[in-house]
Amino acid sequence: MPAGGHIVADFIGYAAADRIATITLDRPDRRNAQNQQLLEELNDAWERAAADDAVRVILLRAEGPHFSAGHDISPEEVARGPFRQIAASIPTRGLLGIHQWEARHYLGFSRRWRDIPKPSIAAVQGACIAGGLLLAWPCDLIVAADDARFSDPVVLMGIGGVEYHGHTWELGARKAKEMLFTARPIDAQEAERRGMVNRVVPRTELDTAARALAAEIAQMHPHALAMAKRAVNQTLDIQGQAAALQSCFDIHQLGHASAYAQGGQFVLTDLPGMKGKD
Question: One GO molecular-function annotation for this sequence (predicted)?
Fold first, then answer.
């Protein structure tokens, strides 16, 4: 996407005004689950905001009652999506195909969004499950609705956590283990107490509160904002975050190897924290 303007792709909305780029997940009929097209469009929107000198703050939000149900692993999406081609190539290529695809679309995109030198805010409502964390955690700040809940239930699928393994950094070691071991969601209030969420607001005030925070930050000097963000991110990297994310991503690939060794991927359509299609 070129810089500036207003764009609506199939699954992503983009608008830039008043120094704020608003990126909207717009696949509410699938609870904003992520297929390849959504991820590519989302990355294009992030890159557009990064390249626009008029944009000082990036706001990521979602249409519908849920922020994101994670990766779209519905049987129909798996059947027609990239995993079908990857699975077909396993006898000749091993697991290299899935490793390369996930390295780009999951870990790679999330790390790229984290390091864009502009402040970013995620406005999260409803369910933020597994792959949904890969969208929220790279943002610098999170404003959560009081109905928000965060979970990573992929241990139930035979895999030890999602591809961007920020759990320990976001929650601390013991709470991260509880999140993974039990698959139970963490509500917005506990996420705020743990420091994963900056503030919790009533659901009806989420967009207003997130935009007000973005507008406040947008008044600051853009170079100072970039340097402040870089200072914090580099501190985390010096503490080992970047290396840990890569190491845990490689561990994640062992889960795929185990699943294929047992005859195929585990696929769940009803995850903890998500009931029906509301």
Answer: catalytic activity
Q: How many folded domains does the chain comprise?
A: 1
CATH number of the domain to which 230 belongs = 3.90.226.10
Task: Write down the pTM of the prediction.
Answer: 0.89
User: pLDDT by residue (tens digit) across 75-86?
Assistant: 777 777 676 666
For residue 61, give its domain range. 6-261
CA distance 20 to 52: 10
Distance CA 44, CA 9 (A): 10
Least Cα distance to 124 among 46, 195, 59 occurs for: 59
What's the pLDDT tens digit per position in 158-207?
888 899 999 999 999 999 999 999 999 999 999 999 999 999 999 999 99
